[in-house]
Design goal:
The chain has helices at residues 2-24, 35-59, 65-86. By secondary structure, it is mainly α. Helix 1 (2-24) runs antiparallel to helix 2 and helix 2 (35-59) runs antiparallel to helix 3 (65-86).
Length: 102
């Protein structure tokens, strides 16, 4: 049950925060920055948040501190590498809505 709750809670929180930061990055002078900076900014917060919260909720008290550290750092590193490999895919999504006014 802890794994399920940890998964749901951290996914919800991390995605909401990721979306909020991405959205904030589209305001003000940052709206002129390259689109990939939005991905890096939002992931810079959501990846560590998700990577810390899930192991703590799911495994604190079951796995030792060293095991938790390994889970957290492994998650952060793997997710960061994946971000570096696929961040460019943000350019596959059109800036303007596909279904617009006619």
């Amino acid at each position: 049950m802890r794994i399920v709750l940890g998964s749901i809670l951290t996914a919800l929180l991390a995605e909401l925060i990721d979306t909020k930061i991405y959205h904030l990055w589209t305001k003000g002078e940052r709206r002129l920055w390259p689109q990939w900076t939005r991905v890096f900014a939002s992931n810079a917060v959501s990846i560590p948040l998700d990577s810390v919260l899930f192991p703590l909720i799911a495994f604190a008290g079951i796995v030792g501190v060293e095991g938790l550290h390994q889970m957290i750092w492994t998650n952060i590193i793997v997710k960061a590498i994946i971000t570096l490999l696929v961040f460019w895919t943000i350019y596959l999504v059109p800036e303007k809505p596909i279904y617009g006014e006619r």
